[in-house]
Amino acid sequence: RTLAFFLMVLVTVLWGSTFPLVKELVAQISPALMLAARFTVAALVLLPWLRRATKALWLEGTLLASVLFASYWTQAIGMTTIPSGRAAFITGLNVILVPLMLPFLKRRVPWPAFVAAALALGGIALMSLNGANLEFGIGDLWVLGCAFSYAVYILLVDRAVTRHATLPLAAVQVSVVCLLGWLTAAPELIGGSSLSGLLEFWPQLLFLGVMATALTTLMQAYAQRFLAAFQIATLSALEPVWAAIFGYFLLSERLSTRGLIGAGLILLAMVLSQFDPQANQRPTREISPQ
Q1: Tell me: the pLDDT tens digits for 240-264?
Q2: Separation of alpha carbons 67 and 88, rounded Å
Q3: How many CB atoms lie within 10 A of CB 33?
Q4: 31-40, 65-74, 174-183, 254-263: which has the minimum mean pLDDT?
Q5: In whole numbers, what is the pLDDT of the chain averaged over residues?
Q6: Who contacts 52 (Cβ-Cβ below 8 Å, separation ≥6)?
Q7: With 90 as the cut, is the pLDDT of residue 131 above it?
Q8: DSSP single-letter state for residue 211
Q9: What is the pTM of this model?
Q10: 156: Cβ–Cβ under 8 A, 6 or more apart, which residues?
């Protein structure tokens, strides 16, 4: 569980580095082409483990991949019209959606989970939102779809990781998302869009595919074998904290006092989410990561 905890923290480090990167890419190339290229790279990385996938894994992995694709797709579209900070906040709503959904699945949710979720959501708001602008447009609605899709994805992964080995599970997911990405991009390609523009951004796409997609999908699948779904959701709230840290060192951006308070709330939520011993005692199988 300790390894799973730190792996999930590393996942948020990688995710936190992608918001400004994706924002830059979708301003230059279409979201469909960006996602297709990103997941093609990820699928190639995990290709050796695809041959170990069983029929049952393909069925469940396709469902997981469809929901995962929906989260990436809706976020990419939304970020073409709204600031990355606001997108980070709306995406972070999955922190509260997961513990709210769990009782409907007849799953126990300890009270610290709701307190941690509220603290994390408040922290994300302080870090991500500028001013008191409460306008809600189509871009916000797209990213809200991302938050909902990702919350559902966490719950589905929570069940799948007890049935399948980690590496084949990750391989099937990224392969199916890759296929869905190219199917979505097909109308643009048929209409005359060129793939040559992707070559200009190959370093960014390589990082997104290898580090922020293949590796994060693999690490999250492993972490959810040992951590509860609400804990994964709370840990994912660290994403804007790392985004702010990257912005400070790479872009010389400064975090306001309000942002520092928000980061503190998220860190407090992360600690609080680990307090319930019974929730940490997840039933696990002797499944090889291979």
Answers
A1: 778 777 766 766 666 678 778 887 8
A2: 19
A3: 24
A4: 254-263
A5: 83
A6: 165, 167, 168, 171, 290
A7: no
A8: I
A9: 0.81
A10: 63, 64, 67
Neighbouring CB atoms inside 10 A of 155's CB total 23
Report the alpha-carbon distance of residue 7 to residue 255 in Å, rounded: 26
- Region 52-69: what's the mean pLDDT? 95
Report how far residue 143's alpha carbon sits from residue 92's, in angstroms, rounded to the nearest whole number.
Answer: 10
Q: Which two tokens stand for residue 125?
A: 């708001």
What per-residue confidence (pLDDT) applies to 280? 45
- 270 in Cβ contact with 234 (< 8 Å): yes
Sequence-distant (≥ 6) Cβ neighbours of residue 124 within 8 angstroms: 88, 89, 92, 95, 237, 240, 262, 266
Q: Would you give the distance in Å from CA 180 to the centre of its chain?
A: 17
What is the torsion angle, in degrees rounded to the nearest 10, for the CA atoms of residue 31, residue 139, residue 91 and residue 50?
Answer: -20
How many angstroms separate the CA atoms of 53 and 213, rounded?
19
Burial of 122 (0-12, 13-18, 19+ CB in 10 A): middle
